[in-house]
Amino acid sequence: MASSSGDWGAPKSHKPNGKPQQLKYSGIVKKKDSEVYVGNVPPEMTEEDILLLLRDFHPQHIKRCHSGLRSYAFVDLGSSEQVQAAIQRFSGHLVNGRRLVLSRTGLGNRRKDPAETQSTVEMPALERVPRGELGLSHAKVETQTLQPAPPDAVRQICYAVPMEMRGSFLALMLKDCFQDLNWLVSIAKLHGEAGLLVTDALPQTPYFWAIHLTEESHSNMHKLFCQLAEEESKQPYLTRQAVQRGTRCMAECILGEDGAAWNRCWVLEKVEDLAVVLFVDFGRSATVPLNSLRKLDEDDFWDIKPLAQPFMFQKEIVSARPMVRQILRGKVVGPSPLEPHILTFTFCAEEEEEAA
């Protein structure tokens, strides 16, 4: 496999290199290879926040733009290579409930803001629902004695199931990719002590994706990744016309600072030169260039069911993305009240004590 991801089970930590100097952009915005477009930016995200996010790519200039409900920025990263690396790292990255869209600014004569097509490209990661309909295990509130809750407590319980984790969404993916729904039923059978390798997490929510570590999952991971590594250079890149919603293919999934790994993916939508895909074995969605998708349509590549499945914490919320690629040890205590295939997870007692 073309990957420098290292050991997936090794805990990682991300240490910021300090707050970058705030840089301003003056003059007319020019199309050039060293400039990256950052779209679908949360309105509250400042220039300094964007520069901090892209600090590893040495940003030189930034222009922040607001147009009606749209919010975006143009950032000069100094080179075309830095732009491509930033696109791979942060396209689809979740910030305050929005998935960022990164692309080159020199594609075509008209720079179209991908946020213009947000309704078809960017799936809502979360939906707010009435508190009485949440049913989360840590939201034990008697409606007859309902009192205003502190802001932090409200934030922890006011999230519905993320779109990518809903049974209706997963059923569509399973029918297109695997032609059956058995996985959606079988993953809910896990109960008791378990070790989970986290593959994706949604910050400020209780939701995350993980691989249940068993002999079978280890065997499937080894078999699948060896198969993908062998086929990666043999499979042709897909043409623009071949990429449609529901297309089965493969693409590089950014695992973090250590590199990327080729993985099976399913196309959710495409717009211009970009495609929004779900990496089936990591439970992670991302925006990737259309010309980076390789063919992977033969049924033999889809014999192994998805490696990762959705979980939610019983009490905690995800505070930061660095929990990805860490191993969690604890207990699966039952299904989520909202979606039975999402299992509720809690840490072991001794780990809770150490954390305290």
Any key phrases for this structure?
single chain; 356 residues; alpha+beta; Alpha-Beta Plaits; 5-stranded mixed beta barrel; 5-stranded antiparallel β-sheet; 16 strands; 28% strand; globular
Topology readout:
Blueprint: E1 35-39, H1 47-53, E2 61-67, E3 70-76, H2 80-90, E4 94-95, E5 98-99, E6 101-104, H3 118-121, H4 151-157, H5 167-177, H6 182-186, E7 192-201, E8 207-212, H7 215-232, E9 248-256, E10 259-271, E11 274-279, E12 284-289, E13 294-295, E14 309-313, E15 327-335, E16 343-347, H8 349-355
Parallel strand pairs: 14-16
Antiparallel strand pairs: 1-3, 1-6, 2-3, 4-5, 7-8, 7-15, 8-14, 9-10, 9-13, 10-11, 11-12, 15-16
Textual characterization of the structure:
The protein is of the alpha+beta class. The protein has two domains: 74 residues, 2-Layer Sandwich (Alpha-Beta Plaits); 192 residues, SH3 type barrels. The protein is 20% helix and 28% strand. The protein is built from eight helices and 16 strands. It has a five-stranded mixed β-barrel. Strands 12-11-10-9-13 form a five-stranded antiparallel β-sheet, with helices on both faces. A hairpin with a 4-residue loop joins strand 11 and strand 12. The longest helix is centred in the middle third of the chain and has 18 residues. It starts with 34 loop residues before the first strand and ends with a helix. The N terminus and C terminus are likely disordered. This is Tudor domain-containing protein 10. It holds the Pfam family TUDOR. It comes from Mauremys mutica (yellowpond turtle). One of its GO terms (molecular function) is mRNA binding. Keywords: RNA-binding.
